[in-house]
Design goal:
Blueprint lengths: L2 H4 L3 H22 L11 H11 L3 H19 L5 H16 L7 H26 L8
Helix pairs in contact: 2-4, 3-4, 3-5, 4-5, 5-6
């Protein structure tokens, strides 16, 4: 094994694998609709996991956002992407609340909360910022 590879710690490899897996699932749906459910992607799970387990909070935020950015370079960007990225970062921050308290019920509750916030914020953003839907109650 080359000297440079033998000095790598598992940390960067795990981070890289998480980014690649998240990118792959986003691209899988985009280029093969119907193969996986719509919007099926582990990015939010990576964000929650990263917030709960990564020692460096900056990396916890960077990993899911990097996965989004890499895949969006291929898929394309849209005007409300900032809101999607903000929701992913919010899920990471929710994960900070799980640090040292990771239990199945808590993880499920935080996961549902993060998914619900993502749904509400992004759908409200589409309603407010586009002509796709009438701006009525």
């Amino acid at each position: 094994m080359p000297q440079s590879l033998s000095k790598l710690s598992p940390g960067p490899l795990v981070l890289g694998a998480m980014i690649l897996a998240a990118v792959a699932t986003r691209l899988l749906y985009h280029f093969n609709p119907g193969l996986v459910p719509p919007n099926f992607s582990p990015v939010e799970a990576v964000a929650l996991f990263g917030g709960a387990y990564f020692a460096d909070r900056r990396l916890a935020l960077l990993v899911p956002l990097a996965a989004m950015a890499v895949s969006d370079l291929i898929i394309g960007f849209h005007g409300l992407l900032w809101l999607v990225y903000a929701c992913v970062a919010l899920s990471t921050v929710l994960g900070f609340g799980l640090r040292g308290k990771v239990r199945p019920v808590r993880v499920a509750a935080y996961g549902v909360l993060g998914s619900t916030l993502f749904f509400v914020f992004t759908n409200f953003g589409v309603w407010l910022g586009s002509s796709m839907y009438p701006q009525t109650w």
